[in-house]
């Protein structure tokens, strides 16, 4: 499993939604958990979202999806 970075856009290289972009947002102030955004567009103009309640569930979400992520340094 890839390292999970919060607030950084990544490209999904392997697993479900291969070729999509992903971004994890710490939403603890609003919902107490993490939002997981995925999109075919780097701008996230459209796409899908998921939510988990804590870091442990976030790691499980990534494991279940089988994701290998290339975290992009330039946004």
Report on this model:
Helix content is 15%, strand content 39%. The chain has 1 helix and 5 strands. The relative contact order is 0.31. Strands 4-3-2-1-5 form a 5-stranded antiparallel beta sheet. It is mainly beta. It has one helix at residues 55-65, and strands at 9-14, 21-27, 33-39, 48-52, 68-71.
- Tell the overall outline: globular
Question: Low-confidence parts lasting 5 or more residues at pLDDT below 50?
Answer: none
The N- to C-terminal Cα distance equals: 22 Å
In DSSP terms (H or I, runs of 4 or more residues), the helix count works out at 1
Please estimate the helix content.
10-25%
Strand content: 35-45%
Number of strands: 5
The strand order across the widest sheet is 4-3-2-1-5
Sum up the structure in keywords.
75 residues, five-stranded antiparallel β-sheet, globular
In short:
Helix content is 15%, strand content 39%.
List the helices and strands and how they pair.
Layout: E1 9-14, E2 21-27, E3 33-39, E4 48-52, H1 55-65, E5 68-71
Antiparallel strand pairs: 1-2, 1-5, 2-3, 3-4
């Amino acid at each position: 499993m890839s390292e999970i970075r919060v607030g950084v856009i990544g490209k999904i290289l392997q697993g479900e939604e291969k070729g999509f972009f992903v971004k994890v947002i710490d939403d603890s102030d609003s919902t107490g958990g993490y939002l997981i955004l995925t999109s075919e567009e780097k701008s996230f103009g459209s796409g899908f979202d998921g939510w988990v309640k804590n870091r442990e569930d976030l790691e499980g979400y990534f494991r279940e999806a089988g994701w290998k992520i290339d975290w992009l340094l330039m946004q």
